[in-house]
């Protein structure tokens, strides 16, 4: 079982000096942290950093006690970067160590998500070694491969 959204939000508050064990953090402040977490994960998702985070469909349906879906390797990035996002609204200044950890862990996520996309080439010259009069294939490759069939619902497209 992975981390819950509450654990990430409370960890972010602890990073800025508001540990849940020492401070009585009101539920409205935890919900504020959860909305900031949802916004941050949505932004990361749009940048290609897909961690498997279970984004809330509406702000009203957001629940702190649901599992986040992020892997253990992204825990530090989520907590420290969320701390940087919520600190100004609480009048806090994150420590240099928190800023450094946030930057390094975010960069690690970027490196991990920077794998090149697989592409299918269309009409490309087949090369000088290919003799079209022997194979009857021509001097260019054929178009895209046939799409995969998905039951009766049509073709499966890869984007």
Structural notes for this entry:
By secondary structure, the chain is mainly alpha-helical. It folds into two domains: 5-113, Orthogonal Bundle (Hypothetical protein yqbg); 117-159, no CATH class. Helices cover 41% and strands 4% of the residues. It is built from five helices and two strands. The chain has a two-stranded antiparallel ribbon with strand order 1-2. Strand 1 (148-150) and strand 2 (154-156) form a beta hairpin. The longest helix has 20 residues, at 27-46. The mean pLDDT is 80.
Walk me through the topology.
Blueprint: H1 5-15, H2 27-46, H3 75-86, H4 96-113, H5 132-135, E1 148-150, E2 154-156
Antiparallel strand pairs: 1-2
How far the N terminus sits from the C terminus, by CA atoms, comes to 31 Å
Reading the helices and strands in chain order gives HHHHHEE
Number of helices: 5
CATH arch. level architecture of the largest domain = Orthogonal Bundle
Mean pLDDT across residues: 80
The oligomeric state of the chains shown is single chain
Please state the CA-atom Rg, rounded to the nearest Å.
24 Å
Return the structural class: mainly alpha
CATH class of the largest domain: Mainly Alpha
- The gross shape turns out to be elongated
The fraction of residues assigned to DSSP E strands is under 5%
Q: How many individual domains?
A: 2
Name the CATH superfamily classification of the largest domain. Answer: P22 tail accessory factor (Gp4)
Task: List unreliable stretches of 5+ residues.
Answer: none
**How is the main sheet built?**
2 strands, antiparallel
Biggest sheet strand line-up? 1-2
Stated plainly, the CATH topology of the largest domain is called: Hypothetical protein yqbg
